[in-house]
Amino acid sequence: MSESIQMDRGSFVTCDLLDANPKSQVCLPNIEGKSFRQFGAKDRFCGEIVTVKCFEDNSCVKSLLNSDGKDKEGNGKVLVVDGGGSMRCALLGDMIAQSAIDNGWAGVIVYGCVRDIDDMAAMNLGVMALGCIPRKSTRRDEGQTDIEISFGDLTLNSGMFVYADNNGIIASDKPLIS
Ligand SMILES: O=C([O-])CC(=O)C(=O)O
What we know:
By secondary structure, the protein is an alpha/beta fold. The chain is built from 4 helices and 12 strands; from the N terminus they run αβββαββαβαββββββ.
């Protein structure tokens, strides 16, 4: 039985949500020797997922985060980017992160790297990524949106729900808090 817990979106704990919903997906803490870390000031964030798959090209990330990031209830969505785990360039920096905030997104999870992390650490956005690197990606308008993505034992589609805090990342077909 899954249980939607009534709770403020800013005060959930992933461990408690998972205890109440043990069939939820759980991201592994070690993915081929790499781990997700927090880079934003908002270290507890959740929302409806929008998926992107791109490799060393953040065209889709930039255009999506420059568009409305609110769900039907007006809550922020979370962009989950499968960057193939590349540690060679960053798919998000402070300027795109600022446009995510301006457009109401709750957070961005990057299976890859980010940059401008000192500025990002002060921004009211959830950001989790595997690491950081000064180099930006090359925009060639390549990448796919709303496609199934998989990493770290997660298999995610747009319309699912993700919950992230300092304990880690969990995901579910249904909302876990209401
Ligand atoms: O423009 C990019 O590709 C990433 C970046 O530096 C930013 O968002 O500020």
